[in-house]
Every structure is written in structure tokens, then in C-alpha cells.
Design a protein that fits this description.
This protein has about 110 residues and is mainly alpha-helical. The protein has helices spanning about 5-40, 70-85; strands at about 55, 90. The longest helix is centred in the N-terminal third of the chain and has 36 residues, at about 5-40. Keywords: Disulfide bond, Glycoprotein, Immunoglobulin domain, Membrane, Transmembrane, Transmembrane helix.
């Protein structure tokens, strides 16, 4: 029996499937990781003990470099993208400070 043709088709199919899988992974790797975080939250639990993933520093009102565009970006755009879409937890001074607490989040980490 001629086994070369079926064997070649199987090897060629597996190779093509592998190449397509690797290409799709490299194109959509961030989306795949974010999907796995949503589907399996237990695997991505906060294991390092930190309350926040990032500290956002921006000029205070009245300081050089402050304007409404900066404030809108920090208080609306960043949380929408990083917290809601990507699942990160941001510390933004003025928003996350508790009354009577110092302004530095270092004590919280």
C-alpha cells in the first residue's frame, strides 16, 4: 500500500495547524491573556499582597503642567482603559486617598 501520500498529508496538516496557531498567538497574545484572566480569575489572584498595580502621579491643581486635559486623562481615561478593560488596580492620589491618611500609597503596599 502507498502510505507516503496519507503520511505527507497528516504531517503537512499538523505543520500548517502549528504555524497558524503560533501566528494567531503572536497577533492576539494580549487579548488571550486578558481573556484567561476573566475566565480563570483564581489563577490570577493577587498573590504578591499589593493593593495596587500602579501609582499614577500627575501635577496637582495650580502646579506647573496642570490643565483640565491632564486631569480628565488621569481621572477618566486611564481608569476606563486600565482598570475596567485590563483589570489593573490603580492608585490615583485624590481619588483613592482616605481621610486622615497620608498621601503616599507606599504604606498600603
Amino acid at each position: 500500500p502507498n502510505i507516503i501520500l496519507p503520511f505527507g498529508l497528516v504531517v503537512g496538516g499538523v505543520t500548517a495547524l502549528f504555524i497558524i496557531s503560533v501566528t494567531v498567538y503572536y497577533i492576539f497574545r494580549i487579548d488571550i491573556v486578558l481573556c484567561f484572566r476573566r475566565v480563570f480569575p483564581v489563577l490570577y489572584a493577587n498573590k504578591d499582597g499589593k493593593l495596587y498595580d500602579a501609582y499614577v502621579a500627575y501635577p496637582n491643581p495650580g502646579a506647573f503642567g496642570f490643565n483640565e486635559e491632564v486631569e480628565e486623562f488621569v481621572l477618566q481615561t486611564l481608569p476606563k482603559v486600565l482598570e475596567q478593560a485590563c483589570g489593573y488596580k490603580l492608585f490615583i492620589a485624590g481619588r483613592d486617598c482616605l481621610p486622615g491618611q497620608g498621601k503616599s500609597p507606599m504604606r498600603l503596599w
